[in-house]
Structure formats: structure tokens, C-alpha cells
Design goal:
Layout: H1 13-17, H2 26-47, E1 50-52, E2 63-67, H3 74-81, E3 86-87, E4 89-91, H4 98-106, E5 110-112, H5 118-130, E6 134-137, H6 158-163, E7 166-173, H7 175-178, E8 193-196, H8 202-205, H9 210-229
Parallel strand pairs: 1-8, 2-6, 2-7, 3-6, 4-5
Antiparallel strand pairs: 7-8
Helix pairs in contact: 2-3
């Protein structure tokens, strides 16, 4: 996301929800859970991956999974540890590449503009959260340069406030060492750790400003990161 604050226009919200939940094609659901099997095996074999706090995942309702961002591995790695289906954001230009567009479409990804989610992506994200789905957000807006957590972008957590969704703080470690931002390709081996923290419900942050919410979630993710580094 860009440096400017992102404002979500949720006018006509009832129209976004409609009369029932969003219908996802069975082939997309099947593909998502089928792909998780080889992906999980890949991370276990080559990167000795371990998950912590999996029981902290809310079993229902809209959830914004907020995580630090270390590498290109992060989205699929987080998805491998969650029992519920996770929605991804994908750069809009990737939808124009035929091979990638096919994969992105099967994963039901949300279009992401270069300078932010963009109006189309905002509408889709709001609709899915209000339909009780999970969306992955990287509040830093980009991969880290040094393995540490950077400042969160303004507006990065407004989706949660506007849709009254629960936030699931999540920390990743090890991915930066295996695939730093300066590398085009990853190193073949490593040690990955992912931890899901206690969910933060809307009632816990509804009276906070967006800036206070960013600081709260950043603090929680930083604490989680330190915890898995001490494992």
C-alpha cells in the first residue's frame, strides 16, 4: 500500500452482502485444498517448517490475517497453516499474463493496484470479509529489506475497521534468510517458523484510531516474531 491513507467507501454495504454468502466454484475450492498438500510437503522437506498457535484461528466470521512480510513464500506458507480457506491479494498486472492469470483465477485472488488495493480490490475485499471469509494483508506493504518488521502503511488495517472483522496477528521467520528481497531465486534449504497469535476482535479495537490500531497490531506481531525466534 502507498504512504497515503486509504479510505474505504462502504456506501451501499448491504448491496455488497446480498441475500446470502458468496458462491465459490467447487473446482476452485477443490484446487485450493489439493494444492495445499504438495505445498505443505515442500515446506516440511526443504525448510523444516513448523506452525505454532494454529488453534488461535477463528473458526468463523470475517478475519483479516495481518502478517509481517519476509519473502515471496509468505502467502502460501501462511495458507498452509490455516484450516480455513484464505483469500490472497495479487498485483493487477499479473492478471494479464495467461499462465499466471489461470493460476490466480483458480485461487480466486483479489486484484491489487501498485499504489494500494484500489477501488475494485476494496469492493471485493469488503464483500468477502462481510461474507465471513479470511483475507491476508501485509501491513508493511512490501517485503522487508533486513528481515525485521518495517513501519505499517497508513490505511493498511482499515479493512478490518470498516467491516468489523477480527484481526489475526501472524509472524513469520526464516523466509528472509532463504529468499531475501535481493535474490531472484530462493536458497534450497532453510528453517521456517510461523506463529498465529490470539485474535483481536472488533470490540477490542473499535474505539482505537487507525494509527493506534496499526501500533497495536505491529506490537503483537513483533512480540510473536521474538517468541518464535526464541523457540
Amino acid at each position: 500500500m502507498g504512504d497515503k491513507a486509504v479510505v474505504f467507501d462502504v456506501g451501499g454495504g448491504a448491496g455488497l452482502v446480498g441475500s446470502g454468502r458468496r458462491v465459490i466454484g467447487f473446482h476452485k475450492i477443490l484446487f485450493y485444498y489439493f494444492v495445499r498438500i504438495p505445498v505443505s510437503l515442500f515446506f516440511m522437506i526443504f525448510y523444516r517448517n513448523r506452525f505454532f498457535g494454529c488453534n488461535n484461528m477463528p473458526l468463523e466470521g470475517g478475519v483479516v490475517v495481518a502478517a509481517n512480510h519476509q519473502s515471496y513464500y509468505d502467502p502460501v506458507l501462511i495458507a498452509a497453516g490455516l484450516r480455513r480457506r484464505l483469500n490472497f491479494l495479487a498485483k493487477k498486472q499479473l492478471f494479464t499474463s495467461k499462465p499466471l492469470a489461470w493460476l490466480i483465477d483458480l485461487l480466486d485472488a483479489i486484484p491489487l493496484d501498485i499504489d494500494g488495493i484500489g477501488y475494485e480490490g476494496i469492493k471485493i475485499s469488503i464483500r468477502r470479509l462481510r461474507n465471513g471469509e479470511m483475507i491476508l494483508i501485509f501491513p508493511e506493504g512490501a517485503r522487508t529489506w533486513d528481515g525485521e518488521i518495517a513501519e505499517f502503511k497508513k490505511g493498511s488495517l482499515l479493512l478490518a475497521k470498516q467491516t468489523k472483522s477480527t484481526i489475526l496477528p501472524t509472524a513469520i521467520d526464516g523466509c528472509f534468510n532463504s529468499w531475501p528481497r535481493t535474490n531472484k531465486l530462493p536458497y534450497p534449504f532453510g528453517k521456517f517458523r510461523v506463529i498465529f497469535g490470539k485474535p483481536v476482535t472488533y470490540n477490542e479495537f473499535k474505539n482505537l484510531s487507525e494509527e493506534e490500531l496499526r501500533e497495536l497490531i505491529k506490537t503483537k506481531i513483533t512480540e510473536l516474531l521474538q517468541k518464535i525466534r526464541n523457540q
